[in-house]
Design a protein that fits this description.
It is built from 10 helices and 9 strands. A hairpin with a 6-residue loop joins strand 2 and strand 3. It is globular and about 60 Å long. Helix 6 packs across helix 7 and helix 8 crosses helix 9. The longest helix is centred in the last third of the chain and has 25 residues. By secondary structure, the chain is α/β, with parallel strands linked by helices. Strands 1-6-5-7-4-8-9 form a 7-stranded mixed sheet. Strands 2-3 form a two-stranded antiparallel ribbon. 29% of the residues lie in helices and 15% in strands. Bound molecules: 6-O-phosphono-beta-D-fructofuranose. 6-O-phosphono-beta-D-fructofuranose (F6P) binds next to helix 9. The site of 6-O-phosphono-beta-D-fructofuranose has 12 residues, from helix 9. In the C-terminal section; belongs to the phosphoglycerate mutase family. It comes from Orchesella dallaii. This is 6-phosphofructo-2-kinase. It holds the Pfam family His_Phos_1.
């Protein structure tokens, strides 16, 4: 059945909004070698045992420190790759010595919880919520205390929430790249899933039917995001190969981006089928370690949940994807928000 509204009539437009602002490159003055005072426990999603009790994190909103209860989440990986509990610990140890040798490390993180995340809205360019700012502080503490002995590069998207999230991480080079912006939801930018269902129920159902190829009106599909992120991934792989050839100095890359974009990274590096890509779990407030074994060339993954609470933004595929489904069927898997 045809959509009941004109796809060209909405206000959001990826071609106009998502990729047009200018992006700069900045170089920070110091490398990340100094341990920090605010200790942040790391938690394996599978056992959560390293993250005990509580952690003091500065509240950037008020300037006061407050205690956040550590509440490790259980990351249920819906895809076929395996995670082990020891990989990130192995990686941390490796970075403390240096990153040379037989393993390469890429660290991925979503931005901290944004104001839109908090209210269940997608897209936009809102600021971090207070908990998102606490995550930014926790991320800086965590990465800076790894005492990395080789140059660190931080890449963010061009959106405020990723730039703010990475701001406290000490690094040698910092880049904001529009290619790493979140999937642009076109006329649905800034709406909640409930509002999309209410206003554009058939679009909502069509997306559920094929999330990989579905393009929001005036916006993007996952295939579009794969296409724009592809050259960035190509650059990363090329530079890893070059360093291997030249025995050049290693560097560690921290990429702070968004749910859909990081799904593309995980799908590529972990060889996850594109059909599964739109449902890969990429929780907020979690550092994802990608570690490559040079012998096999294979990348493995490990999740480190930092102890700052946040909303869940993961909406699994609902059972009923028919265009005529009821509202409750359409909203069956929408995560709770505040
Ligand atoms: O909800 C957070 C968010 O990053 C939105 O901005 C974006 O539209 C969405 O996730 C992408 O996830 P999904 O494709 O599962 O809707």
């Amino acid at each position: 059945m045809a959509p009941t509204y004109s796809r060209g009539s909405c206000s959001g437009d990826a071609s106009k909004e998502g990729v047009t602002f200018s992006i700069g490159t900045a170089t920070a003055s110091s490398s990340s070698t100094s341990p920090t005072t605010a200790a942040v426990a790391s938690a394996s999603p599978q056992n959560g045992t390293k993250a005990e009790a509580a952690s003091a994190l500065p509240d950037q909103g008020t300037g006061t420190a407050h205690i956040m209860a550590v509440k490790p989440i259980s990351v249920t990986v819906t895809t076929s790759f395996q995670q082990t509990q020891t990989q990130s610990e192995f990686g941390e140890e490796k970075l403390r010595s240096n990153n040379k040798g037989s393993h390469k490390v890429i660290l991925l993180s979503r931005h901290g919880e944004s104001e839109n995340n908090f209210s269940g809205k997608i897209g936009g360019d809102t600021n971090l919520s207070p908990r998102g700012r606490a995550y930014a502080a926790a991320l800086a503490s965590y990465i800076n205390s790894l005492n990395i002995q080789c140059p660190v590069e931080v890449w963010t998207s061009g959106l405020k929430r990723t730039i703010a999230t990475a701001a406290g991480v000490k690094c040698n080079q910092r880049k904001a790249m529009k290619e790493l912006n979140e999937l642009h939801a076109g006329c649905c930018e800034g709406m909640s899933y409930e509002e999309i269902q209410s206003e554009y129920p058939q679009e909502f159902a069509m997306r559920d039917q094929n999330k990989l190829t579905y393009k929001y009106p005036n916006g993007e599909s996952y295939e579009d995001v794969l296409a724009r992120v592809g050259p960035v991934i190509g650059n990363i792989e090329e530079s890893i190969l070059e360093r291997r050839r030249d025995d050049d100095e290693e560097k560690v890359l921290l990429i702070v981006s968004h749910q859909a974009v990081l799904r593309c990274f995980l799908s590529h590096f972990l060889d996850i089928a594109e059909s599964e890509l739109p449902y890969i779990e990429v929780p907020l407030h979690t550092v994802i370690w990608l570690i490559q074994d040079e012998d096999t060339g294979k990348w493995s993954v490990s999740y480190v949940r930092l102890p700052v609470e946040c909303v869940d933004t993961f909406r699994p595929k609902p059972q009923n994807c028919n265009l005529q489904r009821s509202e409750s069927d359409a909203l069956e898997t929408v995560p709770t928000h505040y």
